[in-house]
């Protein structure tokens, strides 16, 4: 438990250096102007000041950086032994629906194969072939753990691991 808390503290320090004061929204959970995340602030990612308008509906393009960082740190504080993921449909995908709940919190031991089964269950598509990519272009092996992928491919700005899914028709 001590190593996880130290890693989380290092992440908070690294992101506080990156986050600009002019990007910060006052109601965010993580405030770069203070040393500690606020325990009294109620974070609401759907507040109008967090959501950017006229953007393609991806998580990264629809929310401000400070709000994405706030959501990451809040989930890490609540579940220090789990990894927060953002799972989205690929832009070219025509057949699979978008998920309403695209945020996942999974154990580091979960494999990509198990994550694909979770995605298929959430979409209620048990018989369709679904592929997952990480970092917009990497097809990980089905037996790779989320912990390994998070160490190598998490986003530099907000620290989330972004996973995109698509059906077989996209790839050939």
TrEMBL record:
Membrane is among the record's keywords: yes
SUPFAM superfamilies named in the record: Ubiquitin-like (SSF54236)
UniProt keyword terms in alphabetical order: Autophagy, Lipoprotein, Membrane
Lipidation (Phosphatidylserine amidated glycine): 172
Main location: membrane
Places the protein is found: Membrane
A single GO BP: autophagy
InterPro entries: Atg8-like, Ubiquitin-like_domsf
GO terms under cellular component: membrane
Family membership: Belongs to the ATG8 family.
The protein's name: Autophagy-related protein
Source species of the chain: Steinernema carpocapsae (Entomopathogenic nematode)
């Amino acid at each position: 438990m001590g190593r996880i808390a130290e890693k989380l503290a290092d992440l908070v320090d690294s992101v506080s250096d990156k986050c600009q004061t002019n990007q910060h929204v006052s109601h965010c959970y993580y405030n770069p102007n203070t040393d500690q995340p606020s325990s009294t602030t109620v974070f609401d990612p759907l507040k109008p000041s967090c959501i950017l308008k006229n953007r393609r509906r991806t998580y990264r393009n629809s929310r401000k950086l400070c709000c994405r960082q706030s959501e990451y740190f809040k989930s890490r504080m609540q579940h220090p032994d789990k990894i927060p993921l953002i799972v989205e449909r690929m832009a070219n995908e025509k057949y699979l629906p978008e998920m309403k709940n695209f945020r996942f919190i999974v154990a580091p031991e979960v494999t990509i194969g198990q994550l694909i089964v979770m995605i298929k269950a959430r979409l209620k598509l048990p018989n369709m072939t679904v592929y997952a990519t990480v970092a917009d272009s990497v097809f990980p092996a089905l037996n790779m753990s989320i912990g390994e992928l998070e160490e190598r491919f998490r986003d530099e700005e907000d620290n989330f691991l972004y996973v995109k899914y698509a059906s077989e028709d996209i790839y050939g």
